[in-house]
Amino acid sequence: MPGDLRDRLQQSLGSAYDLEGELGGGGMARVFVAEDTRLARKVVVKVLPPELAAEVSIERFRREIVFAARLQHPLIVPVLHAAEEGGLLYYTMPLVSGETLRARIQRESPLSVPDTLRIIRDVSAALAFAHGHGIVHRDIKPENVLLTDAARDGGEYALVTDFGVARAVDAAATGSLNELTSTGIILGTPTYMAPEQVAASSQIDHRTDIYALGVLAYEMLTGRPPFAGLSAHAVLAAHLTREPEPITRVRPTVSAELDALVMRCLAKEPAGRVASASELRRAIDELLLRETGNAGLTIPRDAGSPKSGTRRPRFAATVGIAAAAVVVATALLWQGTRDGQRTRAPVAQRSVAVLPFVNASSDAENEYFSDGMTDELIDALTRVQGLRVPSRSSSFAFKGSQLGAQTIGDSLGVQLVLEGSVRRAGSQLRITTQLSRVDSGTVIWSGRYDRELRDVLSVQEEVARSILGALEATIGGDSLLAGANQHKEARSPLVRRRTRDHVAYDLYLRGRYFWNRRSRDGFSRAASYFEQAIARDSTFAAAWAGLADSYCILANFGFRPAREVCPRSALAADRALALDSTLAEAHASRGFVHLFYDWDIVAAERELLTAVRLDSTYTNSYLWLNHLAWARGDTNAAVAYSRKAVELEPLSLILNTRLGWALRRAGRLEDAERQLRYVLELDSTFADAWRHQSNVLLDQRRFDEAVAAMLRAEGRDWLGYCYARAGRRAEALAIARELEAKARTGWVAPLRMGFLYDALGDKDAALAWLNRAYDAREPDMIFLGLDPYITTLTDDPRFTALIRRVGIREISRSGR
User: DSSP label at 300?
Assistant: First the structure.
């Protein structure tokens, strides 16, 4: 009886586990939820029914389960423990939050094509890993696929459970059970069994799982399995003799390519199926990119395979210390289907990573020049059709590390690695480069260039073309040089940032170097260098775009008053576009000003989508679109845009932090905390992540932790706000008085002061500061009706009137 089994199991488990309830049948096992009392965590306990356990060799079963437990993969639910006590065979697994694929199908059938592709991609990744270790699942079905949103970025992903259990029962079977398992029938579920299982073939291998995965895909896409409405015996016969109805007949909107791929998985003969789970995943990646990888409003919910031609970022920050390179290598090595829960980074065909060039000059201040050379080569190579180049944030994460080129290349998932050094002495320039294969470490090309500094742009193009020639000779394929020459920038297909004045170019490189430091001083110095570059060459479009970028960020971070810098940003962006209308950066900056200063959401969207169309890998565009979506109250789109930016720049500290912020604004506090914790694992000194983590902790009423986090952030105003929210009124008032005094002679962001006084419950002071923020046209005023920082003013008619004056939208707190 059920009660008897539970009592027996609890007695067998003793005090190590506390059974809490039964989840229901799990195929060959009964499934219970328990607390592991030693580690204070929830687990699942699966126990074989006594009648089945009686026919199984306990020692052989345990050995097989231990073998399966070696599968340690982010998309596989691991076996934690297996034992036999009191005649009961059981094993434990982590309790995964979420639902089974069966529950999803029953609720939403049929599933959307993108969701189906993502699930199949995850399951195929898990299967590829298991198959590589000689383990076939044999019982892939919706009940054994778990859907969870516990990834660090809040995106849903699929886990496969019960790996090796069917094999364990099969291998341990004795007596009459052995006679049954020899036919394969007991080890599968009829709906999802491959023909060779039905036919009791001894040649069951990884392709059996491919067939079951095809059945799974068919069911998700059509709402029913291939052979529905039949008895169990009739289904088994159909697997052997009948062809499924084409998916496109049941659901005409499914593409012919996807239909054909699923039908290949369902081939009767194993040799006719997709050859491996890895091959299936690659095919799914291509289809997923086609389905969701457009440059418009449809953004994938998760980070898929890296797109070719990833452009160097503007919002990228490196880890900056050699010790962190190991963390970064791990993060990149296990990237793919889900942030935080990853599959090994695949090696992309026709791919090269440009590692940060070493400054070989005697003057350490020439670091900006070697970094700039690296940036320009990354930018040049990403503009070549058919060539994948990891982003700046990914490559620069390894700056200063002692990891070898092969380790770094493996982590970045590339075939080739380009290394180099730059020595600058006066007007003399020496650049040395070498291109190596990652798999063997063999140097396949090297070059040395001794030039005058005035020739820096031509030598960059010369190096880029030499690299492409070496790539063609090494990896073959269509002409990469032809791809380079097809670029829309007719003046220079490889090096875009043209100026005839090498001094102006040098100033531009200095500006970008300081811009990438991402600090108040860095942005201010960047703006100064861009202005100097423009003074040398007023037709230098890239310098105008850099100036517009700098002013945007100074306003966005509250470093400078918006009324001071946003009009300058608009003028700089307009000048850049007059010189080169194809600069996505300038369109994005113009969109920023429309959104955050003009408070014109329609014009902002027009410019930002133009930027995306011109360069779908420019992350600032997605960052501002995230803000635009939030201003409209569309939290799902806001998260999607942030995730798209992170997909393009997976190691960007600011983009990952902004994703955490978007998740917080969407009310997904656990996801936000997990995301921000990931950022701090990359760089524990990143103040912006500490600030947002503190606010998440405040929302969770974890006040002591919030204060500790905010003390590691920047900004007295934010610390005062945190003290106020945490109930530490005296400290908050002291900071408020300090900032009031500072505001009499200098700049204090009035919006943050409004937040501080709102948290203190002083509505009059809060409104006074918010009205000053309106007069100053502070960028974040566009969020005022939705902002989670406001807690006490929401029902005040004066606050409602202020929201109307901003004019973006008005929304009640209950509608947030």
Answer: -
Task: Specify the DSSP element, H or E, that contains 422.
Answer: strand 416-425
Locus of tokens 């945007």? 552
What pLDDT, in 10s, does the model give residues 722-742? Answer: 999 999 999 999 999 999 999
Structure token pair of residue 578:
């007059």
What is the number of other CB atoms lying within 10 angstroms of the CB of residue 503? Answer: 14
What distances in angstroms separate CA 816 from CA 311, 638, 672, 725, one per listed residue?
A: 35, 13, 17, 20
Q: What is the per-residue pLDDT across 581-610, written as a single tens digit (0 to 9) for each?
A: 988 888 988 998 899 888 888 999 999 999
DSSP letter for 498, please: -
**pLDDT tens readout for residues 615-648:** 887 888 999 999 999 888 888 999 999 999 888 8
Radius of gyration from C-alpha coordinates of the chain: 29
* Cβ-contact 386, 468 below 8 angstroms: no
The neighbour count for residue 410, using CB atoms within 10 Å, is 20
CB of 196 closer than 8 Å to CB of 208: yes
| β-bridge pairing 88-94 and 99-100 | unpaired
13-22: Cβ within 8 A, 24+ apart: 13/45, 13/85, 13/90, 14/85, 17/43, 17/45, 17/92, 19/45
Cβ-contact 291, 367 below 8 angstroms = no
Angle at 109 between CA 108 and CA 115, to 5 degrees: 75
**Residue 759, SS3 per DSSP:** helix
User: At what angle are helices 729-743 and 750-760 packed, to 10 degrees?
Assistant: 150
**Amino acid code (one letter) for 339:** D
- CA dist., res. 537 & res. 505, Å (int): 9
Question: What secondary structure does DSSP assign to 224-286, as a single string?
Answer: S-TT-SS-HHHHHHHHHH-PPPPHHHH-TTS-HHHHHHHHHHT-SSGGGS-S-HHHHHHHHHH
The helix or strand, by DSSP H or E, that contains position 35, with its residue range, turns out to be: strand 29-36
What band does 51 get if pLDDT is binned at 50, 70 and 90? Answer: low
Q: What is the pLDDT of residue 732?
A: 94
| CA distance linking residue 160 with residue 127, whole number of Å | 8
pLDDT of 336 strictly over 50: no
Which positions ≥6 away from 778 have C-beta within 8 Å? Answer: 558, 562, 749, 750, 751
pTM: 0.54
Active-site residue identified among 7, 18, 122, 139: 139
User: Which segments within 98-251 are labelled E, that is strand?
Assistant: 99-100, 145-148, 157-160
* Calpha distance 212→189 (Å, rounded): 10
Across the range 310-316, mean pLDDT stands at 33
Phi, psi of 463 (to 5 degrees): -65, -45
The question of whether 139 is a catalytic residue gets the answer yes
Residue 36 CA to residue 17 CA, distance in Å, equals 5
Residue 106 has a CB neighbour count (10 Å cut-off) of 11
Question: Rounded to whole angstroms, how far apart are CA atoms 116 and 110?
Answer: 9
Among 544, 469, 460, which residue's Cα sits nearest to residue 494? 460
- Identify which has the larger pLDDT, 550 or 55: 550
